[in-house]
Design a protein that fits this description.
It is a single chain. 44% of the residues lie in helices and 16% in strands. The protein has 415 residues and is an alpha/beta fold. Helix 1 packs across helix 3, helix 1 crosses helix 4 and helix 8 packs antiparallel against helix 15. The protein folds into two domains: 221 residues, Rossmann fold (3-Layer(aba) Sandwich), CATH 3.40.50; 155 residues, 3-Layer(aba) Sandwich (Rossmann fold). It is built from 17 helices and 15 strands. Bound molecules: adenine. Adenine binds next to helix 3.
Length: 415
C-alpha cells in the first residue's frame, strides 16, 4: 500500500532534520558504517509503531538500507514530524502517519502497517502488539518476535504473558539500563520541560511545579524543573519512592493538597486519573496541566470538560478551561505526551542509546528465529554493555579496566 503522509513536498526538510539528528548520534554513525552496506536484513519485513521523529528516522533508515522492508506508523496521533514522515516515504519506506490523526485514523494506520505481514514488530506503547493479539491475528504466522520501547508497553506485554496469551517473544527494550536510565530520566527530564516551555512560554523559576510519580521519568522531570529554579512538589503512591523523593530534597504530599499549591503539573505515572475531577474541583486558578506519560489518561480531561463553562484554545497547544466560579485551568497538548506534542521528543544524543538497543535486539530476534519462547525477554546483557561501550566511544570518554589481580579479588570470598 502506498504511504499516507501529510505533504510529500516536505521531504527535503525532513532529510535535513534526519541528517542533523544523525550528527548527534555517533553510535549510529558507526552502525551506518558497519551495517548499511550489508544485506543482513534482506527479506525481513518489519512493522514499526514509533513516534515518527528525526531520531526514529535515523534508526528506521538503517534497517531499510540493510534490505529490510519496513512499514512505519505513529505511536501517538499528535507526535509525528510531517517532514520526517515525507522523507522516509520518499526513500521507499511505507509510512502511515501524519500529525493530527483522529483516533479512528490512528487505528486505521496501525492496521495498514500490519498489512506487510511483518516478521518483526517494533512497538512503543503496546498498541501494535495488542492489535495483533486481538483483531489482527492473521499476521501471527509470519511474526518471529517483537520489541517494546516504553514502560507502559512492557506492563501490557507482561500482563499478556501472565495471562498466557502472548503469542511471540518480545524483547523489553525499555527495561535495559542503557535505555531506561538515560531515555526515561534524562530524555524526558529535558524534553518534557522543553515541550512545556515551547507550549506556554512561561517562566519556570519561582513556580511550584508538581511532579506526579517519582519513577525514572518523574525523577528526570523533578531534577530539571529544580534546575530551572522551580519549587518542586512530588506526589507518589509508592512509599519507597516517596522516601527517595523526600531525601532528594523535594516536598512530598498528596495530590489533593498539591492542587491547592501547584502552578504547573506534570504527570509521569502511567496511571489513569492521577489528576481527577475531584482534584480539579479544588485546583488553583491559573494552573497549567501537562502529561509526560505514554497515554492521555493521567489527567481526567473528560472531567475537566464537564467542569468547564467555557473552553477556548489560547495558544497552539494550550486550551483554557474556565469554571463557573471564574477559575481557569490550562491544558497542554490535550493531555498527551507534552514532549512530543509541543516539542520534538527526546534529544538525538539520548535516542541513540534507545534505538541502538532496538537495533541489536532486532538482529538478535532474527538470528534466533524459532529458538525463543513466547514470553517477555530482557535485552541480552552483552547488548546493553555493547551499547554502553559504543556510547562512551562516541562521546570520547575513556574508563578504567580491572587488572587481573582486581578481578581475582572480586571473585574471592576469603579476604
Ligand atoms: N520518544 C521520546 N522522544 C522520542 C524521539 N525523539 N523519537 C522517538 N521516540 C521518542
Amino acid at each position: 500500500m502506498p504511504s499516507i503522509v501529510k505533504d510529500m513536498s516536505l521531504a527535503d526538510e525532513g532529510k535535513r532534520q534526519v541528517e542533523w539528528a544523525l550528527s548527534f548520534m555517533p553510535v549510529f554513525q558507526v552502525l551506518y558504517k558497519e551495517y548499511s552496506d550489508s544485506d543482513e536484513l534482506s527479506g525481513v519485513r518489519v512493522a514499526a509503531c514509533l513516534h515518527v521523529t528525526k531520531e526514529t528516522a535515523v534508526f528506521i533508515r538503517l534497517l531499510h538500507s540493510m534490505g529490510a522492508e519496513v512499514s512505519l506508523t505513529a505511536s501517538n496521533p499528535l507526535s509525528t514530524q510531517d517532514s520526517v514522515a515525507a522523507y522516509l516515504a520518499s526513500i521507499g519506506i511505507n509510512v502511515f502517519a501524519w500529525r493530527g490523526e483522529t483516533d479512528v485514523e490512528y487505528n486505521e494506520m496501525l492496521n495498514n502497517a500490519l498489512d506487510i505481514q511483518p516478521h518483526v514488530v517494533i512497538d512503543d506503547g503496546g498498541d501494535l502488539h495488542a492489535l495483533i493479539h486481538s483483531k489482527r491475528s492473521d499476521v501471527l504466522p509470519s511474526v518471529i518476535g517483537g520489541t517494546e520501547e516504553t514502560t507502559t508497553g512492557v506492563i501490557r506485554l507482561k500482563a499478556m504473558e501472565r495471562k498466557g496469551v502472548l503469542k511471540y517473544p518480545v524483547i523489553a527494550v525499555n527495561d535495559t539500563p542503557t535505555k531506561r536510565l538515560f531515555d526515561n530520566k534524562y530524555g524526558t527530564g529535558q524534553s518534557a520541560l522543553d515541550g512545556l516551555m515551547r507550549a506556554t512560554s512561561v517562566l519556570i523559576a519561582g513556580k511550584y511545579v508538581v511532579v506526579a510519580g517519582y519513577g525514572h521519568v518523574g525523577k528526570g522531570v523533578a531534577l530539571r524543573a529544580r534546575g530551572l529554579g522551580a519549587k518542586v512538589i512530588v506526589t507518589e503512591v509508592d512509599p519507597v519512592r516517596a522516601i527517595e523523593a523526600h531525601l532528594d530534597g523535594f516536598e512530598v504530599m498528596r495530590m489533593e493538597k498539591a492542587v491547592e499549591i501547584g502552578d504547573i503539573f506534570i504527570t509521569c505515572t502511567g496511571m489513569k486519573d492521577v489528576i481527577s475531577k475531584e482534584h480539579l474541583k479544588k485546583i488553583k486558578d491559573g494552573a497549567i496541566l501537562a502529561n509526560a506519560g505514554h497515554f492521555n489518561v493521567e489527567i481526567d480531561v473528560a472531567g475537566l470538560r464537564e467542569l468547564a463553562v467555557d473552553v477556548k484554545r489560547v495558544r497552539e497547544y494550550v486550551e483554557e478551561f474556565r469554571f463557573e466560579d471564574g477559575r481557569r485551568v490550562y491544558l497542554v497538548g490535550e493531555g498527551r505526551l507534552v514532549n512530543l506534542v509541543a516539542g520534538e521528543g527526546h534529544p538525538p544524543d539520548i535516542m541513540m542509546n534507545s534505538f541502538a538497543n532496538q537495533f541489536f535486539s532486532l538482529l538478535y530476534l532474527v538470528k534466533n528465529k524459532g529458538k525463543l519462547d513466547s514470553r517477555v525477554y530482557d535485552v541480552p546483557k552483552e547488548v546493553d554493555e555493547l551499547v554502553a561501550r559504543y556510547t562512551l566511544k562516541g562521546w570520547n570518554i575513556e574508563i578504567d579496566e580491572l587488572s587481573p589481580e582486581q578481578k581475582k579479588y572480586r571473585e574471592s570470598w576469603m579476604l
